Amino acid sequence: MPDPQPPALLSNRPRDDSRRMLHQAVDLGLDFTSGELRDHRVLRHATVGQLIDRLAGPIPHTGTSDDQLMDSLAEIARWSISQADPRYLAFPDTGDSIAALAADIVATFLNQNLIAFDRSAPAASVIEAQLIIWLRELIGYKAAPLTAYQGLASLGGMWTSGGNMSNHIAIAAALAHTYPEVRHSGLRAIPEQPVILLAGGVEHFSYLAAAQALGLGTDGLLWADATPDFTSDPASIAGLLASPPPGKRIFMVVGVAGNCRTTGIDDLQALADLCAQHGVWFHVDACHGGSLLFSEKLKVQLAGIERADSVALDPHKGLFVSYPSSYALFRDPAVLGHFARYPDRADDPDCLDLGLITPFYGSRGFESLKLWALMKHQGTDGIGRLVEARQATYQRMVDLLERTGSFRLLGTSDFYRCAFVFLPDQVAHALQEAYSRPELHGAVRALVSRYTAAFADRLYRSGTVVFDLFALQDLADRIGLGTTAKYQVMGMCVGHPHIPDDIERGIERAILDHSRELTAAMLTDAHALLTTAAPPDSGAAADVTGPAGW
């Protein structure tokens, strides 16, 4: 006789059985984080096809035992990548705050639906409202204490699933604020084409996605120049605000507080001045830079953010909170009232049904408990110390990259992330002749891109160190072949406040070992390039592979 099907629901199981299974799940998570399930590598590399062969299967018609299920979960963990590993240097999303992890477990058990207060999420609604007020205070927005709550229209913020959605919602709010008639008559009621002004080369993919999804179209984006430091150029933005293309009206300017490729931070004060001068909505994308708000020392880099009409924050980037965790905040709390399903309830102090003014969302979970728990556990001062420690660790890792002599950094970085190509000093010296021959520039760019991608791929497949990989222009002309063409570049992003000395030495050894292997081959190709009668004038591939490439 086969074993009977194990009970599916907590209410049908002995408490000790449930406790044992859930303790096993926590132990599995701890074994994954420690590296035991990953063979103490950042990941055990496998291709798409290999993982499909390993993990795919027919629909299960009969169930398995508790232990068999845990074995299956462990197998999934063995083939997962750990962003909490200090050798994971592709993105800052460590998600390893103990308070947030504990809150995530509790929130799963509570299973609250933040769409409504009554019969749905009473305590959770209050906690999320409190968190939104705390975030407004950190930005520098006016924020009355929750004890003076005046209704949904007084909150001025909402949780979202990510920066992509936070930016979507900010755009929708700016459009509804500038063109109130859109709510009833749609975009056809607007006599001119509404456009968003932002700098090319430092933008997040969400703006193009939002323009297409919200009916603005790709022509609804107006591109300003970026500076050599990968920030928005205020002079270029000023010129376009003063003289927009015929038939177009700029209704939003995007300032970037930490772009997703080099974390360059815009001059937010200058952009705020321009937007105030021209009466244009100012949005600050602080999905990366928002963590600096917790540090009294570092938040000066965000001066002017309090003047933004809207701000996007991503705690799951750089604040040690697991996915998903993002927020859209508004200087004027009433702007979210444009989306109220029942406008008469937006000013009712007895109504805390958050789902009434959360565009794009209906039912959703108690994700905000994670950040609330982190702030309660560490306080803003404790989080600030973590952010500052991470910055010091990042600077040490940049020094590590530079002393290897294997890389050329593109531009400067304001915090926790930089972009670079694989270009060892001896290869750069061997290519000096090619710099004086314009017909070879395309081939040199292709050579640098090819070996940069090969270096990043070797590290990734080995599971020892993970850098990001994406395409980027050399806006500062650090390579010396112009600023317009794109290269395949690596990105190093330090999400960890502390990297132990032994792990740092291991990272350096892995870099040097792979560098030695590739440098010899790259030198051979460089000499061949110089002696070939007609080298191909090929540009860099524009592959999109890592998170920043999105």
TrEMBL record:
Signal peptide from the UniProt entry: none
InterPro entries referenced in this protein's UniProt entry, alphabetically: PyrdxlP-dep_de-COase, PyrdxlP-dep_Trfase, PyrdxlP-dep_Trfase_major
Highest taxon in the source lineage: Bacteria
Keyword Lipid biosynthesis in annotation: no
Key words of the record: Decarboxylase, Lyase, Pyridoxal phosphate
Listed cofactors: pyridoxal 5'-phosphate
Family named by the database record: Belongs to the group II decarboxylase family.
Designated name of the protein: Pyridoxal phosphate-dependent decarboxylase family protein
Species: Kitasatospora misakiensis
Phylogenetic lineage: Bacteria, Bacillati, Actinomycetota, Actinomycetes, Kitasatosporales
